[in-house]
């Protein structure tokens, strides 16, 4: 396996083999965690990177002392907030291309349209809600940058959403990740995390449907 393929394997599957890489790379794993969460939230070309499952796995390993909980918590919160901020800036820079429906290399138009639809339904609260919805999480700040959302408003919702998301996933892993039934069925747990992540979206959607039309 060449060096590029090896690095890609680490980035794509770190959630499944985090304990192995901690033993192998020691303190440098903190940098890798930061980069993956930053890229997953901050670059529209990498929505496929592990997000919820990686933060959950980090929480589970923090219990064993392999990772320092406070350090990893602060680091991932900063990564999540910084990632969305970078994504907002990229969206602002590419505003004209997106609004003119031009194709952007390496970016699927359907993902942009999905995030745009989500944004139109939920407004600025999308920046918080989208944190809990894979794919939309990566594209929501990009769409915010493309649109007219002021940065001072965006950064407030960005911080609330980033801290809330990391807190939920990390501390879920910390308190429940080492229970044998969960540890031995981690794939099912990941699906469960995604399902729980969709709850805020579904609640808001139902509320909008039940609200009388104005």
Provide a descriptive summary of the structure in words.
It is a single chain. With 214 residues, the protein is mainly α. It has one domain (3-210). Helices cover 74% and strands 0% of the residues. It has helices at 3-13, 18-25, 29-42, 52-64, 69-93, 95-99, 109-122, 126-129, 136-146, 151-176, 180-183, 186-197, 199-210. Helix 4 packs across helix 10, helix 5 crosses helix 9 (136-146) and helix 5 (69-93) packs antiparallel against helix 10. The protein starts with a helix and ends with a helix. The mean pLDDT is 79.
Key structural traits:
single chain, mainly alpha, about 210 residues, 13 helices
Mean pLDDT over the full residue set: 79
List the uncertain runs: none
Instruction: Write down the Rg.
Output: 18 Å
Shape: globular
* H/E series: HHHHHHHHHHHHH
Number of helices: 13
Query: Domains counted in the coordinates: how many?
Result: 1
Offer a concise description of the structure:
This protein has 214 residues and is an all-alpha fold. The protein contains 13 helices and no strands. The protein is globular.
Secondary structure layout:
Layout: H1 3-13, H2 18-25, H3 29-42, H4 52-64, H5 69-93, H6 95-99, H7 109-122, H8 126-129, H9 136-146, H10 151-176, H11 180-183, H12 186-197, H13 199-210
Helix pairs in contact: 3-5, 4-10, 5-9, 5-10, 7-9
């Amino acid at each position: 396996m060449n060096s590029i393929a090896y690095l890609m394997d680490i980035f794509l599957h770190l959630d499944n083999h985090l304990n192995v890489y901690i033993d192998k790379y020691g303190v440098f794993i903190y940098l890798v965690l930061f980069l993956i969460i930053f890229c997953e939230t901050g670059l529209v070309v990498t929505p496929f990177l592990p997000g919820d499952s990686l933060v959950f796995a980090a929480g589970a390993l923090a219990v064993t002392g392999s990772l320092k909980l406070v350090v990893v918590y602060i680091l991932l919160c900063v990564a999540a907030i910084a990632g969305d901020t970078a994504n907002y800036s990229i969206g602002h820079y590419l505003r004209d291309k997106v609004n003119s429906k031009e194709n952007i290399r390496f970016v699927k138009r359907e993902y942009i349209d999905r995030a745009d639809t989500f944004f139109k339904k939920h407004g600025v609260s999308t920046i918080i809600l989208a944190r809990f919805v894979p794919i939309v999480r990566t594209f929501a700040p990009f769409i915010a940058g493309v649109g007219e959302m002021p940065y001072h408003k965006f950064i407030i919702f960005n911080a609330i959403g980033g801290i809330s998301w990391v807190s939920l996933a990390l501390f879920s892993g910390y308190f429940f990740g080492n229970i044998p039934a969960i540890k031995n069925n981690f794939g099912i747990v990941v699906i469960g995390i995604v399902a729980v992540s969709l709850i805020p979206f579904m609640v808001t959607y139902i509320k909008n449907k039940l609200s009388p039309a104005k």
